[in-house]
Amino acid sequence: MLAGAAHAADSAGGLKVGITLHPYYSFVANVVGDRAEVIPLINSESNPHGYSPQPDDMRRATDMDVMVVNGIGHDEWAFEIIEAAGRKDNLPLIYANNAVALLPVSGDQELVVNAHTFVSITSAVQQVYEIARGLGAIDPDNALFYRENAQAYGARLRRLRANYMTQFSELDTSSFNSATMHGAYDYMMQEFGLSVAAVIEPRHGVNPTARQLARTIDDIKAANVNVLFAEAYFSSRLADTIQEATDVQVYSFSHIDAGPYTPTRFEEEMQANLDTLAEAIASTVVVE
Amino acid sequence: MSDATVISPQNGRIESAVVATVFCAVVAVTVLYALTRPDQPAPLPLLEWQVSSFSDLTAEDQAIHSALFGAIGEIDWYYYRLQTWPDIPELEEDVLPPFYKDAFWEKNGALQWTMGRPLNNDQGATYYHGAGGVVPGQGSYLLLMGHIHAGMLYSNQNTIWIHDDVNAPYPEIVRRGSLIRAGWKQVITYSGADELERLRGVGS
User: Does residue A288 sit within a domain?
Assistant: First the structure.
């Protein structure tokens, strides 16, 4: 059930709120309840990495009153669509990350900004609040409704985090040392007091060259990495190659970029990620 | 007798002059653009008493900063609802990091948090002070909810400060100069709004 569903109201005539990524569908749906319509800009099965805009996207952009965007590197294609649809000057944008403290991608010497703020409960709550603020400014009649829903949803997300925190506090993390294929999990790991020792992709969505891979394998061995998190929705033989070369255990995380758009998608995917994380940590416990 | 017209080759001087003119025009336009183009947006340089959340903090300090930055919104909204600042037990009850004692709290130094008001009750300012962490190299922290007037809904001068000494005492006066003299450094958050400015050159 959506947060704030008790405030049920007729959605006819409500805002049409566009979103670019799966987590933003969940965030906005929980903030607006049934007082606005949430419209994904792209098809749910499209890969948002290096996405090529389609004619249907422009039609959807034409129909929106406002759009919620990541804006810091994960949905650059949305700006092309907005421009192509002729909405550059008349589509209000809510930049969800305005009030999120950004982190660099782990292990990147050039301190590249990590755009995956939406794979984290703490950052999600901040973005939900920013979305509620932005929508309230555009739709003042429902501002209080949006804010109350945001707070209720935020409280539910924080309880989710607290539940896993309790679970993790019972696990010995002293031997846990991880790497990830995709540089998407710094925010999530940080909020659970963990860190990522290495990221295999040299850049967002880019496979390493043979030389880069050889160097990464050396780094993994040197840092005693024992767990590698691959991607749930990407098929890649890289993880197998690295496992063979280093003996790491391989698990999969989702960075919530596939599957149906639903209000509960973010929570479901984060729960799956955190279950995986708990399993991975447990696997590294040294039995005396 | 043939009617053919003989066309003698033109002197290359004109073509050379045209090519030279075009070349000079291209160079002039390029130089003019380079001299007059708008400055590329870049974050303001940090002052001596400031550090960047993005590049100057240890992993634990960065984690505490991120949690404090997120807590600002929650604390502000608490104030908005109840017109009073939440104390530490209330923040813990809301399972709000970095105050809530969980694995994050433990991994990031098990800091002891206190809430207080400066001696001069600086126009409604309140602070949350974290010290006594157990991670080597960790600092002390200060979240300052500053300068709120009676009847105002939000505080708009919220700042985060860090001190190299893990046991730095809480400050009695929270004005900027006093904090700097006491060895505190303001943490300048690199937020999505800053990145947006860098990427697109526009404020959001």
Answer: no
The pair of three-digit structure tokens given for residue A78, joined into one six-digit string: 């949305």
Q: Is the pTM of the predicted complex or chain greater than 0.90?
A: no
Task: Say yes or no: A156 and A204 in one domain.
Answer: no
**A227 φ, ψ to 5°?**
-135, 135
Q: Are residues A128 and A206 in the same domain?
A: no
pLDDT in tens, A93-122: 999 999 899 998 887 667 789 999 999 999
The distance in angstroms from the start CA to the end CA of chain A is 46
Residues of A in contact with B192 (CB under 8 A): 71-72, 95-100, 102, 117
Query: pLDDT tier at A7 (50, 70, 90 boundaries)?
Result: very low
**Cβ-defined contact of B73 to A103 (cutoff 8 Å):** no
Q: What angle do CA A220, A223, A227 make, to 5 degrees?
A: 60
Structure tokens at B166: 């893990």
> What is the C-alpha separation between A4 and A260, in angstroms, rounded?
22
Cα A25 from Cα A226, distance rounded (Å): 35
On chain A, the residues whose CB falls within 8 A of the CB of B95 are 158-159, 161-162
Residue A226 has pLDDT above 60, yes or no: yes
Of A137, A107, A101, residue with least CA distance to A122: A101
Q: Does B182 touch chain A (CB under 8 A)?
A: no
- pLDDT at residue B120 in the model: 63
Could you say which of B65, B190, B196 has the minimum Cβ distance to residue A95? B196
The residue assigned the tokens 């969505």 is A205
- Nearest CB to A195; choose among B59, B73, B196: B59
> Token pair 């804006």 is at which residue?
A71
Q: Are residues A179 and A114 in the same domain?
A: no
